[in-house]
Amino acid sequence: MSDPPSEDPVLTQRWSWTHLQHRALVADVGEALVRAPTLGSALRACCEAMVAHLNAAFVRIWTLDTPSDTLELQASAGLYTHLDGPHARVAVGDYKIGRIAAARRPHLTNAVATDPEVSDHAWAERERLVSFAGYPLVIADQLVGVMALFARHALPADTLDALSSVSDTIALGIGRLRAMAALAEQQERYRLIQRATNDPIWDWDLRSDVVSWSEAIQTTFGYPLREVGTTGHWWSETIHPDDRDRILHSIHDAILGTTDTWTDEYRFRRRDGTYATVLDRGYLRRDGRGKAHRMVGSMLDVSAQRQAAHEREQLVVALTRSNQELDQFAYVASHDLKTPLRGIANLSQWIEDDLAEQASPDLRRHLTLLRDRAKRLDALIDGILDYSRAGRVRGQAEAIDLDTLVREATELLAPPAATTVEV
């Protein structure tokens, strides 16, 4: 800040008024960047403050859209307040605004009507514009926008210095507001993800041992958020005592190690005192030295799946035992049934042998039929045994004589002579 004139009271008073306006401008810009809820409203308040405190004709601020390398008009105050028109979007390098952005240098003039950077001198004369001050908005060598001011009076050096300081403040404000908007968007996305899943999500700050939980901790395990502890100790106390040491060693090995993921399964106590089987998975964030400072994860209740697997195992055991008992029963039953059949077959043969020539043809035929039916019953018992082992014992394929099969079935059933079969 320059020293005030010491002799001329008029100049001293004018100097004091100007610098009061500069201080008020800086204060209003700072307040706008802190209090305004959105980037657009903050930049509009900054433009209005410059118009009011510097008696500017109009002020505009553009921000850079990096992917398209285009300046987008965000705020305008004074003579023009609209945000559309030919200067709503300016490519970096085009017009004086785009060239300020490309060069990363201010453009200052108190002779707008003859300035070669001003494309429409007739418009400038018609609007009685005298001065222009355009500043690139830069943060750490990164362009974030351009600020431009037109006035109907010359801009003294002190005012240009104040504008330079204001442009730096606005650049920092844009960076902060963009970071806040990105953070808010990320937090909203995180909240939506939390609501979209039934699985409890946890976020553990390893440096402060503060853990936050999603609302699903209540819907899944019954704990209202007001009852959920905010430290890792609360979580460890809800682990089943028989699983606790194993899980704590497991997760601390992951934190102290180099891996970025952790997964384990354990029993987690519900609010009603019962235990759920959970599959817990976490992702570790590490700093540049590899030290873990944050862990985010989710808990999946797999109780139903594990119960179903347990019941399936029990069913397999029961079926195996039942099959063994069935095999034993079939073996005993077949033995008890086949023994009298062999006796019948042998007895019929002995009768036929004893009678020898005395046996009539009809008797021989009936004795042969008796033996054949005993053999068929024996084969039927073997078939029942094979059926009882179906799916567990693979039999060998055999060729079947269909004529013989039909004839034997007919003899076994002995249908009336008038019986017909439709195929």
Word description of this protein:
With 423 residues, the chain is an alpha+beta fold. The chain folds into three domains: 9-184, GAF domain (Beta-Lactamase, 2-Layer Sandwich), CATH 3.30.450.40; 198-301, PAS domain (Beta-Lactamase, 2-Layer Sandwich); 319-393 and 400-413. 52% of the residues lie in helices and 20% in strands. The chain is built from eleven helices and eleven strands. It has a six-stranded antiparallel sheet, sandwiched between helices. A five-stranded antiparallel sheet has the order 8-7-11-10-9, with helices on both faces. Helix 1 packs parallel to helix 5 (157-196) and helix 9 packs antiparallel against helix 10 (361-388). The longest helix is centred in the last third of the chain and has 53 residues, at 303-355. It is elongated, with a radius of gyration of 47 Å. The N and C termini lie far apart (115 Å).
